[in-house]
Predict the 3D structure of the following.
Amino acid sequence: MPALKTTDHFGEIFWLGQVGDRDAGLRSKSTQSLSLDFAGPAGETHGGLTRPSCSRVSSQYERGTEIRNVRQLSIVSEEELSAIADEMGVARLDPSWFGASVVLRGIPDFSHIPPSSRLQNDAGTTLTIDMQNRPCHLPVAEIKVDHPNEAKGFKAAA
């Protein structure tokens, strides 16, 4: 009996992006495709088989400990970005402001997909969900460029 069950949830890739130099900023650049392997997207600053641990896993590891990198992609939902924009009082949130790799649409409540869930396309390419990326202060600087007054409300709205 298989441990993973097929569901009736179907989504569509709406947008792809890539962060080439994290030191230059969080903003991702739109791209037509991503070339992926087990280290993540080629040329992506978040790629690599390992990474230094950060505050998200500070209960398990001392900050800076080398750990398996399961954060090579940042996948966000078009519907959830729209809901956050509404809450902030702005017309739209550009996914590039978040360093997004993939924007999906059509999967309700995407942020609450359980860890270990698989996103699989018809060709068999499969991404495994590790954990939800909790609301973060880092996108505020990018949002502030276009929405200086509303940017401070991002974390609460997210």
